[in-house]
Amino acid sequence: MMAMKPAHYVNGAFTTTGTAFPLFSPVDGSQVGAVPEAPRDVVDAAVRAARTALAGPWGRTSVEERCSMLRRIADGIEARFDEFVAAEVADTGKPRELAATVDIPRAIGNFRSYADLAYGRPERAYPTTVPGWSGSGQALNYTVRRPLGVVAIISPWNLPLLLLTWKVAPALAAGNAVVAKPSEETPSTATLLAAVIDEAGLPAGAFNLVHGHGANAAGEHLASHPGVDAIAFTGASATGTAIMRGAADHVTPVSFELGGKNAALVFADADLAEAVEGTVRSSFTHSGQICLCTERVYVQRSRFEEFVDALAERVRALQDYGPMISAEHRDKVLSYYRLAVEEGATVVAGGGVPSFGDERDGGFYVEPTVLTGLPQTARTVREEIFGPVCHVAPFDDEDEAVRLANDSPYGLAATVWTTDLSRAHRVAPRVEAGIVWVNCWNLRDLRTPFGGVKASGIGREGGEYSLDFFSEPVNVCVKI
Ligand code: NAD
Ligand code: 6OD
User: Fold this and answer.
1) What is this structure's pTM?
2) Are residues 225 and 181 in the same domain?
3) Which terminus of the chain has fewer Cβ atoms in its 10 Å neighbourhood, N or C?
């Protein structure tokens, strides 16, 4: 099947209006396509189409009908599974295995799980008696949930379809009309999703897609649009700040999943081999380009050297890893590799650019890297790098471990490695993070709350938490 070219999807029709910008392969740096930049009038048309859909057949769908549509979308992605995998791999350069076992299955799972959750969702009722009220003073209070209206969904490049559908599915399940803007780096699976949604028979305007950049472009126009009733955004914390400024003008509610500088705490009683393997996964999966990746590892002093040696050996042996998303991002990561050395780091693995002797030498690769020896105040230890790199530092006791983990502007995820169950239960709630994994990493249950504290976000997604964000309760009081 011919790959689909990136196109906007507005009011049930595809269009490539707008000046095109080039799309590069992260694997070899070659230009592989072009993406239309949505001008302001295309964003306006998408918001208008969404508003019109809410006033039309889409606004009158029952939750049963919407859940059936979500299931048809899931089936549609499944039917074009290989096409989705190929598109995700082409845009991101991630190993095919990762796209085929995580990204695309999770996109399907997002639609199916929100269909189940929305359909099975109970509402609350309160039988009421008000003493002294004239008449019976009796009533039945109950709650109905109303969609927020037109929802803007803005998503990043690292898990393009997974993170887009993580918001689109609950937004549609709750009855909103969506205008989505995927990252300018990864337009392809979003375009395929629009095709699948089209085939699934959603009324025109219920789902719209616009492509383009963020600041001073389609993203900013969408996020600050007066016709948008809510914004669900995943991306960098600095972008969250910019979006919030625009949202403030219209008091638009936001749900933000932002950056992280996630800590792993490895206690002396941990199964060290498991902790090392777990850290290889948590720091280097998708070359560290997952918001949940560990960039700070703290190891109890008595096992510090043993851990660092074992981790460095494993990391030096890593082979089948993907590139950074862009030349710009590769340069940013490499600038942190240089900064780390200037700040006094010891580079125990990696630290540079790999040489493959094939077309990948034109791509955006950096070496998986392990650092030690930096103070907690170093920028390399405080700022999100979003690459295949972690810094390992020692700690002496539980209190110090918790203090170091919490000494960060971010608070997205943390991992605790210990065989002491009491310690796990003691430490987990003390870590300032939205998600704490014990002896595992990124083991996801889609019903659980997902999100961060501090600069890592506002609100929670996942299960009922997403359905809560994308709807508002209305109290109905019926006098008896
Ligand atoms: P980014 O913030 O640069 O871009 C994300 C999206 O926002 C893109 O679609 C972009 O075009 C758009 N955008 C940029 N500026 C905008 C503006 N002023 N107004 C409106 N839209 C704008 O992030 P990125 O580089 O694509 O992704 C990497 C970042 O995302 C990292 O910081 C990472 O930690 C974070 N992230 C967080 C999570 C999470 O769940 N917490 C998940 C994935 C990525
Ligand atoms: O697994 C998820 O639901 C999720 N939102 C993952 C985010 C990963 C960040 O890059």
Assistant:
1) 0.97
2) yes
3) N
